Amino acid sequence: MPVKKVSEFGKFSGLMFKGKNTENLLFEFRNWKTAGIHSFFVFFSFAAVWLDKKNNVVDFEVVRPFRFLVNSKKPSTKLVELPINYENREIIEFLVGKGKI
Questions:
Q1: Is 10 part of any domain?
Q2: Does the structure show a pLDDT above 70 at 101?
Q3: Residues 6 or more apart from 48 whose CB is under 8 A from it?
């Protein structure tokens, strides 16, 4: 699954104003944190996957459009945003279960 590492500026925009066939995004944080995100101006659902320093999944959630706040339940150092689309179907089904989206 290819991902694009976002710049510091990109951390503010993420998937906003993009289509569901856009690239997967990787956010890296300097410190352990429970990273909160929103989905304002994201017009499609996506999977938010929070990772630790060793790239182990510590939390994930399917985020619907225009949610005010979504937090990880555990501290993380990275976040991957995966648009729910055909290219990401296998990883999303692995995370949430086949046919659950």
A1: yes
A2: no
A3: 37, 60, 61, 62, 63, 70, 72, 79, 80, 81, 82
Q: What is the pTM of this model?
A: 0.89
Domain count, the chain: 1
Distance of alpha carbon 2 from alpha carbon 91, whole angstroms = 12
25 vs 48: CA distance, rounded Å: 10
54 lies in some domain: yes
Q: Could you read off the pLDDT of 35-52 as tens digits, one per residue?
A: 789 999 999 999 999 999
Rounded to whole angstroms, how far apart are CA atoms 21 and 34?
27
Domain that holds residue 11: 3-96
62-74 pLDDT tens trace: 999 999 999 998 9
